[in-house]
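Regression test attached.
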Amino acid sequence: MPPPPSVRSFASTTEVVSPGASSVRTTAAAAARNAPSSVPSKLRKAITLESMNQHLRKADYAVRGRLAIRAEELREKLKEKNHKLPFVEVVNANIGNPQAMDQQPITFFRQVLALVQYPALLESEAAATIFPIDARERASVLLQEIGSVGAYSQSQGVPYIRQSIANFIAARDGFSADPGDIYLAGGASSAVSSLMTTICNGPKTGVLIPVPQYPLYSATLTIENATAVPYLLDESTGWGTDTAYIASVVRQTIASGVALKAMVVINPCNPTGSSLTAAKIKDIISLAAEYCFMILADEVYQTNIYEGEFLSFKRMLRELQRDFPGKYDSVELASLHSTSKGMVGECGQRGGYLELVGFDPEVREELYKLISISLCPVVTGQVLTELMVNPPKEGDESYPLYKKEYDTIYTALRERAMTLFDAFKEMEGVRCQEPKGAMYLFPTITLPAKAIQEAQRLNEEPDEFYCLQLLESTGVCVVPGSGFGQKDGTFHFRTTFLAPGKEYVDRMLAFHKEFLEKFS
Amino acid sequence: MPPPPSVRSFASTTEVVSPGASSVRTTAAAAARNAPSSVPSKLRKAITLESMNQHLRKADYAVRGRLAIRAEELREKLKEKNHKLPFVEVVNANIGNPQAMDQQPITFFRQVLALVQYPALLESEAAATIFPIDARERASVLLQEIGSVGAYSQSQGVPYIRQSIANFIAARDGFSADPGDIYLAGGASSAVSSLMTTICNGPKTGVLIPVPQYPLYSATLTIENATAVPYLLDESTGWGTDTAYIASVVRQTIASGVALKAMVVINPCNPTGSSLTAAKIKDIISLAAEYCFMILADEVYQTNIYEGEFLSFKRMLRELQRDFPGKYDSVELASLHSTSKGMVGECGQRGGYLELVGFDPEVREELYKLISISLCPVVTGQVLTELMVNPPKEGDESYPLYKKEYDTIYTALRERAMTLFDAFKEMEGVRCQEPKGAMYLFPTITLPAKAIQEAQRLNEEPDEFYCLQLLESTGVCVVPGSGFGQKDGTFHFRTTFLAPGKEYVDRMLAFHKEFLEKFS
């Protein structure tokens, strides 16, 4: 029978039986009589590894995996008096978490956030001596638009904030942007997850992902039971994209019967730290137009650029649409930005947004339904996103301090990147691309045969073995290349360059020397 | 061939081809030659209603559905000079969003949140005159434990905050709680979504959900492609649970070959406003032990109690385990709490937690992996959760104001509930349970045959038709019972009782009278 209207929205339902249908008061005995012989024993669990979501079981997420867990254990051990560890601090170079290192928040951002949390400060004369006028004015404007940061906003985000983001994109790209295309999110990760849930329709859905890649993408596709179609980045050209090669992967995929729906591009790249040229970006957009797949441009590192300027996929698409009328109108682009990276570095505040271009309006309605189920992204994270895209301008009271703080962070990141890069140049068998963007270095390591054998004996990936040894002897936690994917037979690790000082770098240098001696 | 190690973690992948495999520089022409004849036309989209996630398409979420969208349109229209609408304000009684009405945040909570956002205030003498000593002390303690609210925390949440939550649960229930069992979340909705993703393994996974229910559950199960097994609440006993009947549904489900994995119980209940007795809760736990399914206890309304005291599933389980040694050891319980409801009402701050009891440790590791992919819940939401469970105590500087604000909100909610309840008593053909808990009333409406025919003509659910008419003539937005599920042939709507004043209630009274006259 068809399910009754009251439950028509369920995926599939059993018949609704009305109360009173069973008039016998149930008892353990009665239940046992009526229940099938498979009634479980007292110790059996309903949710087991075997009965749970098998796609989730298959998913890997190395960034907070085995090494991160061991690093936490070592951090606890350091608190013991006689810990006997050969280091005094654990350095979490496994995750881009700037404020867990010594990166300070931008004062203006935190002042406005404090004011929207406690608006009474706007009426306080004492507070007027603490908060600059532009911070107080911004807080007033935002409160007028938002009401309370304790109220749900529209699921897509506060309209005023979406307009502010559209203005930022227009200024960045030189092409207008529509606030209706902006979706605020609780960090870029949650935007990716919503988008993937919307586009994935089982194993026949193919999504191109770079190798190496940030494992958020492989993990999300695994959970969605979609097909990840890896395309290798070319280490020999500074981790660039090889368009002819990608085109061949695309053709192979289409020929294999997988419906290629999207391509993930991370630019500037996590984990490689590389950054794409205009020509490379336009090549990718041309492929997307040719073969009809959506581009997911992860651009959360757009201000972490240490060479050249950032070029957004949106801008490159608009240029192509301008220069070749009609040819690129169908292209679907989703681009991501976040308050967690760049000079903002406010990971814990969970701010970010998604811009959708060229999407089918009916599909957007379905995405809207999905995000509305979780009601709205955290409103203070939305406020921080507004502050990121609309910071103090020259002439504003807060501008000089903002500029100073911003430049100091930028310079520190660049210097730290070079310190680590220079150290890698000294390491035997280690090769690394010059830092161009993002927060990471992704060196190749040539491991001695003996080390590879030892890893196999321990049933570990060779680079995982190397990283575990590094952690145990230096307290420095990095992520093995195998956690991001890499060309077979090559080994890498990803390290952030957020940690201050050179002391931990020297520990890495000493370890590497000993490691090679031990296993050669 | 098996996928290479570099991509072993993907659900399924195509072979990794290396750069250079295709040496021909691709051109549109070459691509067209090589591509299958199905190469899409310029106007074709990659993501369409037909190609996207079909489970998401099937999902319904009425709380922010058609009525909410129309309400937004009307709110915009009110801004026009000659809008000619028969009302001057839109009342969003469709969603429990207290601070979008006139509910004020608790001062102490916002003071501490402002201080953790801008710690410089702790050093400012001027600020010392604004912030009470206990707010400054709490902020200092939290900052010591957290570092910066701009840093990622542990994926499960800040250890200190989990300990604070465990202390609260122990004091509430009289049984100890383990901080290791607590998972902070960005609102209860995201906790539900993570848990459902973990336990659902396709259509053979059955989850009991109440009818009527908060559509988060049906929508999430639909997206997960699991089987929702509805059990009707019994309106004739104040929307109580009929244990014998539920047992028969359980036996039917097991007999039908669906693996019954979990039961959702919302207590106090959204949308019905009812609240379960100790006996009813223990009956449900007994069924769970007997038939081996997990209980998901949605207890976000645990302080919205207007009659009797709140009894948690955790406490009832611990009592059963104490009174019947061994018999209930296997029971798996997940209970939810949130900062969005109760006297806190901070929906936009996205705070809440999940407590897991009796879960398989390996399954918990998989859940941990899932939540670690989205890194961590917003840290300020975690801070607010700590403040909710550990508010000012008698003798603290902030206690008198906290107590006054808390009691004022509680009294206002209770009075508003009664105002609306009394109005429903005056409405012909409307019956409603006395408000006992939560933020909602869920009256039955008897609709005239003519109104039902008109609804069918417009292809609307009869109660949807009623609610749309109500919105158009009064500006009051409620949610039709069909959005929550209801016994066939019965009609309801859900309204919050958060709106201040009686004026909107009078508009509803007048509308109802006219509606009946029009269609009788």
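Expected vs. actual: identical. DSSP finds 19 helices and 14 strands in chain B.
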